[in-house]
Write a structure and sequence with these properties.
The complex is a heterodimer of chains A (113) and B (115).
Chain A: E1 5-7, E2 10-13, E3 19-24, E4 31-37, E5 44-50, E6 53-56, E7 65-68, E8 75-79, E9 88-95, E10 103-104, E11 108-112
Parallel strand pairs in A: 2-11
Antiparallel strand pairs in A: 1-3, 3-8, 4-5, 4-9, 5-6, 7-8, 9-10, 9-11
Chain B: E1 5-7, E2 10-14, E3 19-24, E4 31-37, E5 44-49, E6 55-58, E7 61-65, E8 71-76, E9 85-94, E10 101-105, E11 109-114
Parallel strand pairs in B: 2-11
Antiparallel strand pairs in B: 1-3, 3-8, 4-5, 4-9, 6-7, 7-8, 9-10, 9-11
Classes of the chains: A mainly beta (113), B mainly beta (115).
């Protein structure tokens, strides 16, 4: 079975610019997660979708971050405007259900300069 | 405040040594997962433990879930350089105000095994 696909793999932008990341989860997986991972640290949950509804976005900086999951499949995460502290790896993961095992994509490494 | 506390944060050992990584919380989890992550890659699931007191073995790796489902440990016997990586524990608990599970990670343990 194909894994979680993310693009782009790398992105370098200047502060105050906008950027978008894309995720295609494993087919049939209802739950989709976006995590932010600072180098050498554990992933921090930004937003969790169940199908196309939001389950948890308590740690999403909503003044600059937004995410959507149209039709309950693919998802995009957007940052506008970006700050230097947004430099991190953004990981997408999916699972069959919210209590099932999560499978991760390779992530998008964002550098804000 | 970190919901899941991992210790140690860094571990540097010689090939052949044994080691244990701990994952502790004051919260009860429905399940707990251990992941291994290599540079430039996403975390890869090693094991899921669900029942309090459960012990699972994966070759040289032994995973244990605490009786109260608040803590877990990962023990590696005779570590090898290929075991080098970031080890993450992650717990599933009910997201506030919903009936959905939420997967929360510890801060990770960076393991380096020297030949």
């Amino acid at each position: 079975e194909a894994g979680v696909a993310q693009s782009p793999r790398y992105k370098i932008i200047e502060k105050r610019q906008s950027v978008a990341f894309w995720c295609n989860p494993i087919s049939g997986h209802a739950t989709l997660y976006w995590y932010q991972q600072i180098l050498g640290q554990g992933p921090k949950l930004l937003i969790q979708f169940q199908n196309n509804g939001v389950v948890d976005d308590s740690q999403l900086p909503k003044d600059r971050f937004s995410a959507e999951r149209l039709k309950g499949v693919d998802s995009t995460l957007k940052i506008q405007p970006a700050k230097l502290e947004d430099s991190a790896v953004y990981l997408c993961a999916s699972s069959r259900g919210d209590f099932a095992e999560a499978f991760f994509g390779q992530g998008t490494r964002l550098t804000v300069v | 405040t970190q919901l899941l506390e991992q210790s140690p944060q860094f571990l540097s050992i010689q090939e052949g040594e044994n080691l244990t990584v701990y994952c502790n919380s004051s919260s009860v989890f429905s399940s707990l997962q251990w992941y291994r992550q290599e540079p430039g890659e996403g975390p890869v699931l090693l094991v899921t433990v669900v029942t309090g007191g459960e012990v699972k073995k994966l070759k040289r790796l032994t995973f244990q879930f605490g009786d109260a489902r608040k803590d877990s440990s990962l023990h590696i016997t005779a570590a090898q350089p290929g075991d080098t990586g970031l080890y993450l524990c992650a717990g599933t608990m009910i997201a506030g105000g919903t009936s959905y599970g939420k997967l929360t990670f510890g801060q990770g343990t960076i393991l380096t095994v020297h030949p």
